[in-house]
User: Fold this.
Amino acid sequence: MTGTTQVRGGRTAATGRAYTTVFAERSLRLRADVAPDGTADERRSAVRGMSVEHADGHGWTEHRFADDDALLRAGRTGAVGAAADTLREVQERPLYALSEESRTGLAAVAAETGAHLSLGVVQQHVAAGGPDRVRAAERMVTTLEVRLTGTDGTRHTRSLLCGSPADTKALRDVAARTAEQIRRRLALPLADTLPDRADLVLLPGLAGAFFHEIVGHPMEGDVVASGTSYLGARAGRRVAPDWLSVVDGGREAVRGYRSPFDDEGTDCSTARLIDRGTVGRPMTDLAVAGLLDTPGTGHGRRQDYRHPAIPRMTHTVALVEPGTPLQAPPGDWIAPYGLRLHMMNIASGEFVFDAPFSLLHRADGGLARLGPLEVTGNGARVLAGIEPFEHRVDGYLRATGGCGKLGQYPVLVSFANAGLRVPSGLVGLRAVARA
Assistant:
């Protein structure tokens, strides 16, 4: 398969000079679902190919792609010598295959715990750079989703970052431990009503997707350049307390999505989207960096070689500055175990999130489950009024999903967050029927 796409941009470099980038990959997405009754389903999707992008310096970028090494054989990349050798070598690298031992181990844990398990593996062998110099890397992430349903039909899911998918013992241990935690939460009584006034507490590692949406997408360089970002319009202005920073970069994750360079071969750097309370630097690919006349941040990413690189997030982290005094909720508080975007208006900051499962922590020490909730609010208002809750940072992602933008889905991203408290009244909370 071959193809060509013309992409309209702005100035492609601060000097207006043309450039060429090449990209090659051999990549895998694997999902293995195992039910307690032994029913199993495995889906495996692999791609192998390369692309070349020519930017003319006047606002047009041509993206040409082909399966395997057809572009090299046709001389369409301009890559020769060591660069061409690296592009070919990457396409020959082996891909992970789920072993029978791993299948048997997952089935045993599902049967023992009564949990539905979903193992997700994303493996990317990539090479990127200019025609005369490319670099190669392997990006690999494994997650395990553990799902249980309570006697009243309540469903609770946790996604866990794992090490090697070949480490069957570690997978079994983490699955069994998580299933027990979920079972204890599902055994809690269901709250009769939603409290009129309760803080929303975003526990470490459970709400990074919230900042991915209300800060990350509005600070992607093409969105900022379009003039439609509610944060881009506040560049250099204080929008949050000085103890809060939100950063994104391919080198940030200890676990999760991690890469030394992006899909154009640019070094991944850390973009401080909210820098100690002030709107900071947007994330850019090469074309948008030229348009904004700023250095590239290494956020040029693509779904695969068939798609042009565009500014995308990598690993988004919400941080509480060290030494910041912490504040406990003054009354009842609600902890959502994951927030799922329902609607986000990047221009205004208005949002709606779904919280499929939450716990209500009562001021008297009691604990109860809550049914599905809808969380509504405005990003600027939440950022201005948010409070610190815990310094510890934890991360997560789902290798079975990803982020979508401009028709490219799924692109692997990961998240992390410290503990943060949204005081009562800053957001609207409503019980809903949908999960």
Observations:
- The chain has eight helices and 25 strands.
- Helices lie at 70-73, 81-91, 100-113, 168-186, 208-216, 221-226, 286-292, 379-385.
- Residues 168-186 form the longest helix (19 residues).
- Confidence is low (pLDDT under 50) at residues 10-15.
